[in-house]
């Protein structure tokens, strides 16, 4: 709806014309207010309820609609209908975000960026809720609340504390790869348009013959990678806190539509068990030499949301929203996420969150037997609300979306199966060694600037030990830089 299209008098929420929106009603001139002034009461009460809980993570973000176009034949690997034909287009909505900051936080900060993509496919919505980093800090969902507590505000000081962040990272050596990534040049993208996206986890694809493949998604920015240095970011965050959100909106407004080239790495299922490291470990990338990135599509963003609250704040993305031909892997992080998001949506937006225009299917309709609840819109009318039924209601298909995965052993609180080259440091060291001398210098400066703020030497020493384990030179230089700053 355009801003000009609203005609007619101002009304109450119930549609009655409003006579005076400037003066509330009083008993006599200069007297107290009256309970019969329902306009005043309605306005104040509505205003008090304008906010819903912000996302517990990724609260600060911006979104846009667009199109995904298939550019290569993916049918040997998946039977997903939206990937079935070269040239086929699917509407998408993409929400970018930072992780730790609250709703009003500045965009230009060192933090991973969320890359949450909803494909409105004819077989239902497929949500790929990824980041701009191919890896993550931890590899088991049970550690996520503790990890995020260290990133967010301390219960006593009310601020993010270097002590908490580094204490957790030092005690969680599996974070070394992602921390190296985050404090390197790509840790502060110049905008949402100038960064890559990743599905990060390993997912299952299955084809029409029932064959299973493990896949990782890559979204390569066609705008080119552009980053900010720490100093540039500090300045921008102060001068233009909404820099990323503004950049995205303005580029779409001027018709400069950002695009990403979409690719996948594909591992035949049989290769997983004996791969050199656990292929479901979210702290590791699959080297391209082992599994090259195969291009499958193009993503374009070309339409801004009309209303940020309705379409961005109330948008919900669920890693458990799969479509036929795509499913989960045994990645222990992903398994936790399959629960966490739907639960967050029920709390944050309500039980009918999936009925909102931005969240509901656009290329098909939802035909569930779920009914009622807060803000139910009555969409099912008089249809029967149970199954099986003999009135021609929607019925189960008997066709699972994904193929079953084999399991072995006993139940128990246990780590993922070990592989020959499982190791928390090798890929962090490889990333460090890949960097130019200048990049290494900036990485050390960025890390040392933050690590030097910790109050205890043992916390700093433990953190440095992880980087030393990744690469002796890395650890040595960081130690010297931290000592120089701490005096
Ligand atoms: C948002 C949980 C790991 C990407 C969220 C939200 C929760 C959550 C509860 C807020 C959802 C909402 O209110 O709508 C978790 C848990 C994790 C985990 C329990 C680990 C076990 C990850 C990982 C990634 C990721 C590994 C990326 C690879 C995102 C993104 C959003 C988000 C992009 C924002 C979605 C949006 O734009 O609405 N996460 N998360 N999370 N998470 Fe995670």
UniProtKB/TrEMBL annotation:
The keyword Metal-binding applies. It comes from the Bacteria. Residues 1-29, 362-422 are annotated as: Disordered. SMART domains: Catalase. Residues 362-380 have a biased composition (Basic and acidic residues). Keywords: Heme, Hydrogen peroxide, Iron, Metal-binding, Oxidoreductase, Peroxidase. This is Catalase. It catalyses: 2 H2O2 = O2 + 2 H2O. Its EC number is 1.11.1.6. It comes from Streptomyces endophytica. The keyword Acetylation does not apply. Belongs to the catalase family. Coiled coil: none annotated. Residues 11-395 form the Catalase core domain.
């Amino acid at each position: 709806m355009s801003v000009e299209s609203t005609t007619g008098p101002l009304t109450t929420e119930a549609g009655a014309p409003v006579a005076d929106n400037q003066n509330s009603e009083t008993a006599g001139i200069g007297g107290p207010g009256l309970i019969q002034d329902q306009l005043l009461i309605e306005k104040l009460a509505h205003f008090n309820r304008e906010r819903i809980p912000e996302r517990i993570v990724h609260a600060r973000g911006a979104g846009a609609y667009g199109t995904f176009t298939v550019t290569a034949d993916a049918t040997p690997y998946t039977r997903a209908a939206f990937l079935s034909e070269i040239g086929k287009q699917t509407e998408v909505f993409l929400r970018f975000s930072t992780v730790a900051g609250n709703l009003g936080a500045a965009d230009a900060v060192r933090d991973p960026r969320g890359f949450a993509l909803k494909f409105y496919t004819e077989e239902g919505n497929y949500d790929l809720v990824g980041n701009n980093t191919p890896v993550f800090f931890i590899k088991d969902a049970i550690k996520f609340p503790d990890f995020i507590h260290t990133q967010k505000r301390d219960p006593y000081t009310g601020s993010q504390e270097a002590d908490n962040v580094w204490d957790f990272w030092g005690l969680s050596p599996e974070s070394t790869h992602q921390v190296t990534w985050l404090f390197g040049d790509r840790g502060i993208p110049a905008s949402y348009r100038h960064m890559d996206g990743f599905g990060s986890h390993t997912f299952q694809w299955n084809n029409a013959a029932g064959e299973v493949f493990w896949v990782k998604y890559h979204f390569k920015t066609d705008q080119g990678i552009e980053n900010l240095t720490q100093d540039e970011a500090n300045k921008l965050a102060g001068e233009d806190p909404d820099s990323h959100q503004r950049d995205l909106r303005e580029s779409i407004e001027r018709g400069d539509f950002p695009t990403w080239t979409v690719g996948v790495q594909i591992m035949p299922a049989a290769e997983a068990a004996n791969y050199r490291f656990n292929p479901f470990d979210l702290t590791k990338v699959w080297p391209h030499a082992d599994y090259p990135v195969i291009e499958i599509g193009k993503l374009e963003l070309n339409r801004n949301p009309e209303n940020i609250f309705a379409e961005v704040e109330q948008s919900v993305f669920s890693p458990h929203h799969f479509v036929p031909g795509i499913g989960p892997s045994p990645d222990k992080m992903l398994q936790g996420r399959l629960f966490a998001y739907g639960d967050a949506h029920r709390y944050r937006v309500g039980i009918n969150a999936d009925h909102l225009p931005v969240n509901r299917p656009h290329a098909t309709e939802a035909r569930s037997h779920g009914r009622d609840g807060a803000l139910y819109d009555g969409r099912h009318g008089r249809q029967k609300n149970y199954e099986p039924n003999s009135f021609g209601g929607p019925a189960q298909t008997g066709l699972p979306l994904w193929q079953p995965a084999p399991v072995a052993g006993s139940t128990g609180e246990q780590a993922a199966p070990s592989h020959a080259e499982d190791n928390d440091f090798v890929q962090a060291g490889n990333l460090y060694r890949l960097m130019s001398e200048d990049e290494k210098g900036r990485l050390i400066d960025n890390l040392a600037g933050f690590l030097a703020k910790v109050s205890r030497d043992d916390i700093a020493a433990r953190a440095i030990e992880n980087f030393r384990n990744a690469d002796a030179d890395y650890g040595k230089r960081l130690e010297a830089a931290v000592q120089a700053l701490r005096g």
